[in-house]
Every structure is written in C-alpha cells, then in structure tokens.
Write a structure and sequence with these properties.
Protein name: Stage II sporulation protein M
Order of helices and strands: HHHHHHHHHHHHH
Shape: elongated
InterPro entries: SpoIIM-like (IPR002798)
Strand content: under 5%
Organism: Spirosoma linguale (strain ATCC 33905 / DSM 74 / LMG 10896 / Claus 1)
Keywords: Membrane, Transmembrane, Transmembrane helix
Number of strands: 0
Helix content: over 70%
C-alpha cells in the first residue's frame, strides 16, 4: 500500500485518538493495540517517513496513559466509594424516589390491611412467628426473638440473607422492573403489617426503638436495591438514544455497582441486629443510633451525590 493511501485511510482514527483521549481502560487498551499495529506496519514499509515518527510519538503518549491508568487502579477501591458510586446514585435519584414510594405505599397498605383483617398478620408473618411473639409478650419480652440465637451465628446468617434479598431484588429487575416492584411491594406490606401488630398491643414505640436500630440501615438498603433493579428494568423499557442491547448492558453495569455498594451497609445492619438490638438500651441511645444511621443514609446516598455532582459540573 502506498504511504499516501495508508495515511488517508487512518487519518481520522489517529486524529480521534489524539484529540479525544479516554480514561476508560478497555477503550484505552483497544486504541493502543490498533495504534501499535499501524506503527508496526509503518516501520516495515515506511521506516524513515514522517508518519512513522508521528505514530511512534503518539504510541509513546498512549503508553504513558496506560501506565498512569494502571497506577490509578491501585486506588480503585477508594475512588469507587468516594466518587464513582455517589455520582452513580446522582443519576439514579429519580428511581430511588420511585423505589421509596413503592415501598412506603406498600407499607401503608400492609398497616391498613392488618387493621381491618385480624388474620392478615398471620398470613404475612406466619403462625409460628406470631405465636412465638405473643408468648414473648406474655413473658414481658416482646422482642425476645433477637435473643434466641448465638450472636456470631446470627450475624453471619442475617448478613448473608440480607445480601441475598438485595441481589434478588436487583436481579428481578430483568423482568422489565416488575419483579423488582413486586419484591419492594412484598417487603413493604410485611413491614407495615409487622409494625401494626405491635401498635395494636401498645408496643409501637418499644418496637421502633428496638427494631429500627438495625432496621434503618436494612430497610434503606432494600429500597436502594430496588433502585438498582429498576435501573436494570428501565434500561430495557426506555433505551433512549442507545440500542436496546447497549442500554441493557449499561443498566446491568450501573445496577450491579449499586447492589455491590450496599454490601457494607448490610454487614453493618447485620452487626447491629446481632450484637446491639438484643440489648436493653436507654431510649436516648437507641434513638441516637437510629438517627445516626438515617443521617448517614441521607448524606451518602442523597446529599453527598448532589453536592459532588454540582462540584463536578462547576469544574
């Protein structure tokens, strides 16, 4: 191939590489491979030409970019939690609001259903749990269920179960969001019926001060997992300017990152439920734990992403 034709065929590609740099490691690697192929060809057929020297310089520049990107990967863990995940949540705030709305509406429905149907709580929570709790109420320990297992065993079981529920809520988003909405609805109804059960017996405040020690993080994480599932489902329903397949790939990637980001929250919720909820704490301490947990969720998943996005947009 003549040098002029070689240059003409590849000029646009080289110009794009030079003028539109990327930090995506996959894209950077693909570009580098193509560029080194062109450089090898030029060295073989046009060893002393200007195009060979140009390609050599451009390849050297891209190689430095690859090395810099490799160094950045060492701090990937920090950047994920400090920047990437919060900015991802900023993009998903509308779906987070939708997830919270579905859960809240289901919770209200569960409460009203339990208030108008004496059998509803047993239908939702099961006879075994209801009977056990009624026995505990008679003994003066209505929430004694939290003292019934070894702490370490309980921590592992609860944490794994919560993570399983979150990822199932996320995966059900594959059913065009309807599976995720069904999971949110079911959990919301169950929580509403559960709280009414204690309200009916004059134990609502006691249950809130005890259960929500861990429940603040746990329920919040389930709602956020619902946001992850809705992200996947909406990528199928509303692909926008992308092809449906490309939109789905992006939705899966974004939703999975959100789901993975919840793992530490569930670990902390499991720790609180296994080691702290079982204790008889003064209302001030219980309330403080609940408020700190709620403040953290509000800050990290709502306020901080907004602030970070505003800063980035300004920059």
């Amino acid at each position: 191939m003549r040098e002029a034709l070689f240059v003409k065929r590849n000029t646009d590609k080289w110009r794009d590489i030079e003028q539109n740099p990327t930090r995506d490691p996959d894209e950077l690697t693909a570009r580098f491979v193509e560029l080194t192929d062109d450089l090898s060809y030029a060295r073989t057929f046009y060893p002393d030409s200007n195009v060979t020297r140009y390609l050599n310089g451009l390849a050297a520049q891209m190689h430095r970019g690859l090395m810099q990107n490799r160094r950045d990967d060492r701090s990937r863990f920090i950047t994920f939690w400090k920047y990437e995940l919060p900015l991802l949540f900023r993009q998903s705030h509308r779906l987070l609001a939708l997830s919270a709305g579905i859960f809240l509406a289901a919770g209200i429905l569960g409460w009203l259903s339990a208030a108008h149907d004496n059998t509803f709580v047993r239908l939702i929570l099961g006879d075994a749990y209801v009977n056990m709790t009624l026995e505990n109420i008679k003994k003066g320990d209505p929430l004694g269920v939290y003292n019934s297992s070894d702490q370490s065993t309980m921590f592992v079981q609860i944490t794994l179960n919560n993570i399983y529920v979150a990822f199932r809520t996320f995966i059900f988003g594959l059913f065009a969001s309807f599976g995720t909405m069904a999971m949110l609805f079911y959990n919301g109804v169950m929580l509403g019926a559960f709280q009414y059960f204690f309200y009916e017996r004059g134990l609502l405040l006691d249950s809130v001060l005890k259960i929500w020690i861990h429940g603040t993080l746990e329920i919040s994480a389930i709602i956020i997992a619902g946001c992850a599932g809705l992200t996947v489902g909406n990528s199928l329903l509303f692909p926008g300017t992308y092809s449906r397949l490309e939109s789905f790939k992006r939705g899966i990637k974004q939703g999975l990152k959100i789901a993975v980001g919840l793992v530490p929250v569930f670990i902390m919720a499991g720790f609180l439920e296994s080691f702290i909820t079982r204790l008889t704490l003064p209302p001030l301490i219980s309330g403080s734990i609940i408020l700190v947990s709620a403040a953290f969720i509000s800050w990290y998943f709502v306020l901080y992403p907004i602030s970070l996005n505003r800063t980035n947009s300004h920059d």
